[in-house]
Structure prediction request, 276 residues.
Amino acid sequence: MYLARLTNRNIISTAEYDFTSDIFCIDPNCSAKVIFVEKSMDRAAHFKTTGKGESIHSEECGFFKELDFKEKLSLVSAYQEENIAQNVREHSIRLNLNKLDPDYVPREAPNGSSNLKEATEIDKDTIKEPSSTPQSISSLKTIKKLFNSVEPDLLASIILNVKGQKVPLSQIIREPHQAHELLWSDKDLPIQYFIFGHVTKIINRDKVKFINLNTEGIERPFTLVIFDKYLKYFELNDADLLHKDILACGFLKKNNYGDKEGTELIIKSSKFVEVF
Ligand SMILES: [Zn+2]
Prediction:
């Protein structure tokens, strides 16, 4: 972990550690003492438990065991809600998925060649030790990789820069029932959302494909919709998707058709869907 809690409850990063204070695990459900570990060849400076005495994470702690994507997402969300990473430097990362969009036409530089410097794709090391070069996320794979490789305290410090708006990572990645809630209470932002859910059903009509996600008992359908025009860009087979966990990205849309208020996520290409 890269953050620790002081006796006065303040949260510090490894760079702020004074080498004398007692330091503890940041998880609100844990009071394990941690120690500082100097930077080495293969790892940035960090905090860790020793595994002895008072220095063992509690079973309810987010650092007790390896978490899967869904568990990490809800933990990061809880950490961001409790502002655990508020006092540390936030990692601001640009989110730009233009290249995945079949309708996107890149802007040409005046002299005909693109002289705009591409932002470097983010990886786990650049988050641990932020460099001055711009970092970006430009695919769903990167988000999946981040969740697999980065600890929850650092994930909670990530703020995404989406077309000029700053959005905490956990607010932009939602489960279907949370996205319903956001959209139908008109609290959604005019941005593309990432939805992590489980595929329950796929319906192929003549000119449209519907992919239903599990809504955790809510009686309102959540459906990925791929319209005719974009079916040629959708290369995943039904067998690749059915009963799998997926991360999908698109704009949320209310669906009033029929008797149930449903939520749709409009998908333009299979590059906007990552299968787990
Ligand atoms: Zn802990």
